[in-house]
Write a structure and sequence with these properties.
about 160 residues, alpha+beta, Pnp Oxidase, Chain A, 2 domains, 7-stranded antiparallel β-sheet, 6 helices, about 25% strand, globular
Amino acid sequence: MKPTQLFETHLTRRRFLIGAAALSLLPATARRLWAALAPDQLALLEKSEFVYMSSTRQDGTLGEQAEIWFFMLEGDLFVGTRPDSWRVKRIGWGRPQAKIWIGKRDGPSYRATGSIEKDPALQAKLLEAYAKKYPKGWEKWEKSFREGFADGSRVLVRYRAVD
């Protein structure tokens, strides 16, 4: 092997190892965002009042779109909903895949996987976020959400973007 080949191979390996080490130092959230959502999608989510969501039926097709209040935390989208909603039932049946449109029914979209979250701290963050994001509607819905999380008539769903 020529000395220049050895140097090039070593340099390539070194660059790889440095890059891998740097990536591993990023928080898991940053790595997930970088891989799953484009910067323009994140920017639109920050500005959007609603998302439109469809969950996956048994035959693999998407259900009807629903207009939904949401909040973002660490790159994941959260919604509060009834446990008897289709999106929650389908998660329970092992079909957590969903498609989310940003801002309007035909807006930019991405695929996500849903999961039920039972952490009261996350529920409190949703309540706080909704109070700020939806001040007019919140007057009407606040009691329903607060009591719903307490008595189980509402659940918190986390949607994590997938590639």
